[in-house]
Input
Amino acid sequence: MDFLDACRKFIAIDSTPANGNKELALFAAQLCREAGLHVEIQTEALNGLEQANIIARPSQGRPAEEIMFQTHLDTTDPGSFALWTKTSANPFNSSIYQNSGPNGGSDELYGLGSADVKLDFLCKLRAFNEVKKANWKLPPVLVGTFGEESGMAGAVKLVRKKMVSASKALIGEPTELRLIHAMKGFASVEIEIPFSQEELEFHLRHDQGESTSTQSKFFTGKSAHSSDPQSGESAIQKMLDYLEKLPDGLAIMEIEGGVNFNTVPSHAILEIDMVGGLRDTIGRKIRILMDAVKKVEAQFARYNDSSFSPAGPTLNIGIIRTFEDHIKIVGCCRLPPSVTDDVYHGWMELLRHSCSQLGATFRIADYKQPFRTMLSSDFVKHCQAELKNLGLQSAVATQSSANEANVFSRFGLECLVFGAGKGVGNSHAPNELVKLSDLEAATKFYRGVLERVCV
Output
């Protein structure tokens, strides 16, 4: 199978959180075997779905030390299919457009996972296939993981079960062919706010009544990656601002919005009954909680790190859902290295205390520390030299998102992040795309790193 056909097949296979990545992992394993690599498959269950990591090496057996070339094989949820106008309203239908410009033409490939980041695995596999050696100075291992969009679960399983013995790792992520040596950490939080008994009884009467009526309001925004919420427009935040202006005592029947904690929500809906007089309403509780959130956000400017953009911490409320007896809110906070553990725990405690006063539950679903690899590292210098050799920008940069590098660095690996395509404003948004020329450049870079570091 040629490279472009493999790209189309990768995008066509659904590896969203709702479907799992096992089907794609098995196909990737097949391609690795066809390339002469020895493959191990590590299967796990996540959220009731079968998932898989694949580990592919040029030779059988795990060496004492190796360098890992890693890419996650899962994608985010695509959101509304109708917004994927470049792929005929199907995010799994890869579509190539030829664009001409003053500097020549460019081929753009659209589809879910084109930039973030499934196709990066194929670039690495192609580089492995082009550099075949009997003896390696530092053996390479190609790894495809699951669950990056679910707390890096695959990366955690990989290292905890000691499936690799890597001392260095090159992590796939859309970086516009920039070398990233530091990334923000993040904390994802889940909050459940209960309806009062009076509200529950009102909901029951309302559902059984024949002449009841409600009013619904729909809010629209612009989706974006949660690492840079300013580039998007949160429909949930618009809804919460609207809710703040409503009088007390109204009955919230339904409040919904967002697709995952990691994406700025583009849609939200609020359904209310204008009946008055209800006490201790869910709307009041949400307003009190949002006051606590604003207190946390007010401190963000104290912890700016100018090497990142945006410079300071950021917060995104990605999901809000109505259940039978409660409302669930899921969000995440991005943290530059300037935010110490003590500061982070202080913020979480402020939110936890506010929830306890409301009778709500507060849970930190995941926490990943920021990471930074020193510029004096030989690994950094080798990668910079190869970028310079290819005529690409060799200066290192930082990124506000988090990925498996945040996990691997905690276990002592020197981590660098690299990949084709644009992250902010492209990944986690409809009509995600990558330039075929950038995939070609990424392949050449990986081949060069193999030759410089491994041979």
